[in-house]
Amino acid sequence: MTKLLEVKNLTMEFGGVVALKEVNLHVSAGEIAALIGPNGAGKTTVFNVVTGYYQPTKGDVSLNSQSVLGLKPNKIARLGLARTFQNIRLFGDMTALENVMTGADARNKVGLIGSIFGTSTSRQDEKLSHSRAAELLTFMGISHRSGQLARNLPYGDQRRLEIARALALEPKVLLLDEPAAGFNPQEKVELGELIKKIRDAGFAVLLIEHDMSLVMKISDRVSVLDFGQKIAEGTPSEIQSNQKVIDAYLGVVDNAS
Amino acid sequence: MSSYKTVLSKINLRDSFGAWWENATKRQRIIFRVALIGLFYALPFLDNPIIGTPETNFQSVLFYPLAVFVVMAVGLNIVVGKSGILDLGYVAFFAIGAYTHAVLGTFYGVNLWINIILGAAFAMVAGVILGLPALRLRGDYLAIITLGFGEIVRIVALNLEFTGGAAGIQGIPAPPNIFNVTFDVLDPKPHYWLMLTFTMLVVWMYMRLGKRRPGRAWEAIREDEDVAEFMGVETTKYKLWAFVLGGAIGGGAGAIYASQVASILPDYFTLNVSILVLACVVFGGMGNIWGVIAGAALLQYLPEKLRFLSETRILIFGLLMVVMMNIRPDGLFPRKKREKVYDKVTGQEISR
Amino acid sequence: MSLVKRSIGVAASVAVAFATFVAPAQAAPAGCNGNIKLVFQGGLTGGAAQTGIGEYNGFRLAILQYNEKKTASQPKVEVASIDTQASGSQSPALALKTVNDRCVVGVVGGMYSGETAAALPYYLKAGLPVISPSATNPTLPSVGGDVFHRVVANDLVQGPAMSKIAKREGKRIFVVDDQTTYGKGLADIIKKDVKATLVGKDSVTEGTTNFSSVVAKVKKAKADVVVYAGYYPEASKFIKQLRNNAATKNVKFVSGDGVLDEEYILLAGKYANNTYLTAPAYFLGAADKALTATYKKEYGVNPRIYTLEAYNATLFFLEAIKAGNTDKPSILKFINTKSVKGIGTTMKFDKAGEPSKKFINEFTVKNGKIAYVRNLINR
Amino acid sequence: MDFSILWSEFFGLTLDGIVVGAIYALVSLGYTLVYGVLRLINFAHSEIFMIGTFTSLGLSIVFGYTGLEEPLGIVLFFFVFLVMALASGIASGMSAVLLEFVAYRRLRRRGANRLSSLISAIGASFFLVELFRLTTESKDWDFPRMLSKDPVFSISTAYFTLDKIIILLGAFGLMFGLDRIINTTRLGRGIRAVSQDEKTAILMGVNVDRVISFTFLLGGVLAGFASTFYMLFYESTKFNVGFLLGISAFTAAVLGGIGNIRGALVGSFVLGLLQQYSSVVLGYNWRDVVTFVILVFVLLFKPTGLFGEAIQRARV
To answer: If contacts are CB pairs under 8 Å, which of residues 132-151 in chain A contact chain B?
Structure first.
């Protein structure tokens, strides 16, 4: 069990306000790790730091035991860290296929000059991106949408498309930010299966999710954030029986759901 | 107004054409392309009352403003339309190109063919120098910086010795003959054809890039720069490329322009030019190259056609822009609203 | 476009080209039913419209009178104009239209140097004679070759005249220009002339409103004469702001023909008084009372600066036509060789197309009126 | 490069810089307010200003002050000046509201691209400029000297003439008034709400259309007053008077952080002074170059201007 993504005592402050404090996390190969916690606990902040959008105040983030601190998000992404967004953020005026191809391009070498003169590598790369994107759309079960503009897709398919786009980067770790938000129970079940499928396809997954039933069903390991601090970590069953967590969190959710 | 709108929304040229285009056979398409290009090359001979410009020489109008602004619009479209970078100083690149040929051509006898390339190159360099710092900014900050850049280039040209200061440069040489076509001040046709060829080269390049990786990267940046970055797009690099390529096109166009008008002054390169080019891009339909070309041609042709209104022509022109934008906010031929069709079996795209 | 239509187009344009260049000399241009056209080039709209319209009226008046008096054998002359808005970027397309019009045998204009320079290559190529009433930039002959002429002395003459006044009026001279082709060209000449006594210089732009920094410089330089090379809109603001500053309120203000205009007095008000102005021109009002009366009757306004010069320039063409020349080459030959009596002067051109008699007059503003002071240079 | 003059003339240059800055400020507020609520450059704002100048001019003609020989009595002057300022304010304000209605509203309702609005604005701007060019014979128009320009008092080389004093006091008065309006009135709060988050504002029952019209009205009125000050100071106008001033004012707004009222003010004064100083040190012709180079550097280190964008933090 090699640790792919490792976050060491991460602290993040915004103008004196502490968003994360001494947080330690890791995601190992082939597992689905979940990150849960009440609203404003700092879950999404973790994603934003890990993906290089924010520079942490203290602490270290390493991918494949090599630090990615200070790298630009696009570099980190190409090193193997892809994410989705709480509020779907697709390239609305591009077709579904193009959305995914944009992700797939990150794996390609060819630059601008090559594209102008249509060198053989560039043509190969284009084919590659295209076929990979097509595969992924099929894998996510939305191949019939490939020609449509992302913004015209139904909600569920937009969620799936976002995941497909992220997978196109062939990440080592896939970060999912509340993928089940707005899904009905039936869809949630399907999504659960899908995420498992993704894991089995060889992608480690870090999952932020509010829906406990889903989290507990699919994740191998759960970490709990509260007020920017990790208060617990363990298997779903451990977490469910953890008093601190129940106090801080589960109670709240039960009322909510 | 509203009735106008309903009427206009009914006549949707590009969809009906697009439909025809998609069902057209390879042969039909080739014929269409050839016919179209042929028509463009023949335009100077079609100076008749219907399309001609009564008050000004039609052939010369075809070159400037028409062809010149079409090229610039295509160039700026890469920046504004495709990548969503608001550039209000595009004239700077045009000026750099023009002065490159004016200075090197007039005083050092370098011929136009080389100067087109040099002009483009210098414009690219300028693009990098401005772009590296400026492209870190967004939206209107970038707009004002580029605007400033445009003015600076003009002011510098106005104050330097070798650019002839306010008097500008006269007697700029035309290029040597090619396949016994003579480039002559009195005959704008060859320069028009030259600019047309340059345009087609640019369009070809644009199409190449547009449907490949860079095109996707640019669109992604336009749609959502952060997400593009998260998806592994080197946003800074591609923004710079868009900026620099746009600049290169402006520079090349400038060199050809200088060679045709044979004398240039700093006050040919005011902010108004930048604004007009931007207007062309948006008027035609940002990001859709055919729209941009049509828009630019129309927007430059109308004032000449309207010259018989002499006094009031810009007035009416301005009014037209407001009305037009209100009727069709996304321009004459908006960016691909039309969704592509893919072959069920191969998954290959059928359209385009 | 069908092939037929296209080929017709080709045929037509070839025919035009043929007629334009290969038309036999002496014969009146074909297809103009015996009439010939003279074209005025200048700014009829835009910022400089005021002066432009004045010149255009002078041009029209001359032709009007010719057509009234002409004998049956002489061709009728049609009035035409191209409005460059005094800007170079506009003139090429318009100039090309003019040279392609077979009935056009001459151009009176351009009004400013920039627009003229931009149009001259076309006129030169087409051998279309040009007489400018007011473009004074020295470089123009080099662009215009043998087709370019002007009835006014150029800035190489006006510059020294201005320097002459400046040196006469003071010991410490400050030169300001407006960075236009005209202004900067003039300023450069003056700076050379007054080198010894030059205490400072600055360049503003057209549309400048805030001269306080320039005033500060003038003050710091302890200048007693300020020379402004530019046009009246800026000059009027500049002089006001000079006069309103305790330290500079008494400096002598010298400027050229770009400022010599009623508008200048309207804008600068009493501050225009006792400023020193030069021009390579007379005022129609002063030169010919009768003609001025006709002019007022015809156009309901007072003649302006260069109205007279436009009138004279047109006379030159009309004399050529009276002498039986009806096409470009012969008219050009006439202009290059003969001399013509105009209002207040006899016009003849040297090799470069400059007037053989060059003169600069000094004017001033006395209680709100432009007044002729003396002739400064007369070669 | 001559710095000595900068020192010897420092106070005079600074005073004029501040006066010019005050005029810029009033205009740039229009840009910044509109940007705050609509996130777009109101390109035709410079024309709104231009309309103001001609309103003042028109009144001066109506009052028969053209070519006035002697300045008016101080009391009469203040009356006349007030009338002019108000008239210009109303004229500009109204045209601004009209502009929004004609050129922007439909586009906004359709949620059209910001650039389309920009082009629509450019069209409107062309139209207005041409309209005035034609009706004013594209001439420079002289504004009578209604007030003596003899200095009242002076600090070193800074001569405080009445017009400068009036402009400074007037401008600061208006800025204070604006601050009150923005921070205390219902519509003012509406402006802030919309600037922060239009959607929420709508949910909170803010009538966005009214707020936006009001924003344009405010911006227009300020530009109107500015135009009267301008006429008092420069004593002439022309159809294209707005263009150069508009660019400066917009630059000032960006320099301070567009959308931020306090930023617009500071930006304007900084710019006014910069232009003065740079034009004596390097020569007027390099003024704009210096201005823009400095702007670039400011933005490099503070990418959202001196005070950052958010209007909600705005306090005059």
So the answer is: 134, 143, 146-149
